[in-house]
Amino acid sequence: MNISKQEKKYINSLSVKKYRDKERLFVVEGEKSVKEFLASPFAVRTVYHTRECDFSEKYPNAKMITSTEMQQISNLKTASPVLAVVEIPCVATETTSFNGLILALDDIQDPGNLGTVIRLADWFGINYIVCSLHTADAYGPKTVQATMGALTRVNIVYTDLYAFLKSTNGEIPVYGTFLEGKNIYDTELSADGIIVMGNEGQGISPAIAGFVSEKLFIPSFSDNAPESLNVAVAAAITCSEFKRRKYR
Fold it and tell me: Which CATH superfamily is domain 5-87 in?
């Protein structure tokens, strides 16, 4: 089965955010990731595969195309034998629908960092990530690839982060990492709350910092350590410490 030029153009357009937003569709590549989405509540619109990886049993409407055609619609340097077009879900933004720990991302820009944070949320059982409107797109090719299927198990919400935090009315503890914060290892941490992670270069913005009720600091144990940690690394340490308190 051949893929038409119009289909190729349409799939390639989904690498651009404005077209993803317009069509409410995104692309998933890789056998493992596509299997994760097929087994999830996500609505898979179409699956394309090459002869080397037959998906017709898993998805009867799958379309077999050539390796050359797959490379033409892939966002990867070396195309995977499987690619799926998937619908972007609508996720409720009401704070009443959230429980447990929530990650809030304040203008994280790097798609790889965002993908890693989504994987971390999945690993630590965090069901919701609330993103500012200027945070990188969770459904962009680089982010989707970095999540390795974790996107199927974590709800991503894009909203006005200031308005979201304001809507909590101070009823939920809000944590954030700061150089002038309290040592995270000596601070009492709750089982529920919002953990804010800031922009790679600027950290948590002053407007959002105003909602932080508990400023945390991750200490270094080296005399020659850099001034700060990568945001994904800081998120991993912070989430791990919260979960460690719960299960110790």
Answer: Ribosomal protein L30/S12 (3.30.1330.30)
